[in-house]
Amino acid sequence: MSTLREQGSLSPPPLKKRKFESTTTSKAVASFFTPTSKKDPDKIVWRVINRSLLLARYSPCTETIGPTVKRRKIAAFDLDSTLIQTTSGNIFAKDHTDWRWWHLSIPNVIKQLYTDGYALVVVTNQGSISLKDNPKTLKSDQRSLAAFKLKITAVFNHFDFPVLLLAACAQDGYRKPRTGMWDEVLEELDLNEGGGPDMQASFFVGDAGGRAARNGAKADHACSDRDFAANVGIEFKTPEEYFLHEEPLPFTRTFEPAALLSAASTTSTNTTSIIIEKKNSLDIILLCGSPGSGKSTFYWTKLKPLGYERINQDTLKTRDKCLKVASNLLAEKKLVAIDNTNADPETRAVWVQLAQKIGIPIRCVHFTASTKLCEHNDTVRALSTSYFNPEKRTILPHSAFVSFAARFKEPKPNEGFQDIVTVEFQFQGNDEQRQTWTKYWI
C-alpha cells in the first residue's frame, strides 16, 4: 500500500530556470495584447465569502457545476492526506510545488465519478490561510493565499471536468465538522430546492476518522471528517477504504454529545433540580468552573431571581474593577455573585479576603463539566442560535480551556467557604435545540 503512494506524483516536476532565461512566452505576450472580451475565460474563478471561506469554481469546459447541469449526487473529498500529500513528507507543504497524489489512481477515480453523474466537491479546513485584512500579517497572509491558489490550480489542471472547492480559513461555522461549507455547497449546486441532493448516493472521504495508530501509521489527528459526514447525514469513508478498498478500522470519538445527554438524563443532580437558597442577609456567592460550564446560565436562572448582582470580568475587564464594583454593591447591602472561572485557591482567596474584611459569609458553586464538554458548549453558544447565546459571545480559543484545566484546583471548605454546592451539567432546551446541541461542533 505504502509503496504505491511513494511512487511519485503525476504532476510534472518544475522546470529549472537558467540564470538569465526569460520566462515570458509568445503566448503570454499575445494574451497581454488580446482584448479582454476576446480572451478565453479563466478555468478557475475564486471568491471569498464572509471573509473566512475561500471558494473556487473550476470549469475547464462549457458545462458548469451550477444550475445548468444539476447533479444531485455529491462526491465530496477532503484535500490534504486524502486527495494529495506532500512530496517532502512534511505535514505542511513547503510551497505550492510540494504535493503529489495521495494515490496514483485518484485522477481516474475522480473522473469516473464525474462520468457517473456526480458533482465533484473538495471541502477542506485551511487554518493557516487568513482572509482578513490584518496589517501586521498582510504580506505573509497574501503569500500563503497565493501559494494555496497556485497549488489548487496545479491539482485541478489534471481534470477536464468541473470541480468545486471550499476552504474554511477561520474558526467559525464553516470549519469542519460544522456544516457551513455543506450549506454553501448546496447553494452553489442549486440544490436547496426542487428535491435537494441525493443524500443516499452522496458521500464524503477524509483522513480525519478518529482511528488509532495502525500498521506503522500514526493515529488520526482528529475525527472531524467523520463527524462532518455524520452532521451532514451522508456516508463517510477514509482514503484507505475508498481508494484502496481496505476494510474499515475501529475508531473512537473523544466526545460524543448525544451519549453524554443520554447519560446525564439518568443522573439525579443537575442544574434544573439544584435548589440554592438564600442563606444569609448579605453574602458573596463565588462561581467556579471552566468557560462554557454553565456559570452564567446558572446565575441568570438561579441567582438573579434571588437578588444577586453579577460581577463578571469579561464585562468589567480587570479584577481590580470587579473588586471595586463588588465592594460598592456590598456597601449598599446588595448580594453579589462572582461569575468568573476562579480556577485556583490564589484567585479565590481574593474574594474570601474581601468577605472576611466586610465580615460576611462567602459561598462557592462548583461546576464540574469536563474540558471537552465546555469547549463544545462554548462553540454551540457562539456559532448557533440566539437561544444559546443571549449575550452574543464570540468563540473562545482552545487554549482558554486547556489553560483553565492546567490551573484548576478543586475548591475546598478550608479555603473559607460557608458551603460548596456542586453542579453537574444538564442540557436545557426543546427538541429542536437538543438536536442542534447534539451535533459535532469541535
TrEMBL record:
Residues 1-22 are annotated as: Disordered. One of its GO terms (molecular function) is double-stranded DNA binding. Pfam families: AAA_33, PNK3P. One of its GO terms (biological process) is DNA repair. Residues 1-10 have a biased composition (Polar residues). InterPro entries: HAD-like_sf (IPR036412), HAD-SF_hydro_IIIA (IPR006549), HAD_sf (IPR023214), P-loop_NTPase (IPR027417), PNK3P (IPR013954), Polynucleotide_phosphatase (IPR006551). PANTHER family: BIFUNCTIONAL POLYNUCLEOTIDE PHOSPHATASE/KINASE, BIFUNCTIONAL POLYNUCLEOTIDE PHOSPHATASE_KINASE. This is Uncharacterized protein. The lineage of its organism: Eukaryota, Fungi, Dikarya, Ascomycota, Pezizomycotina.
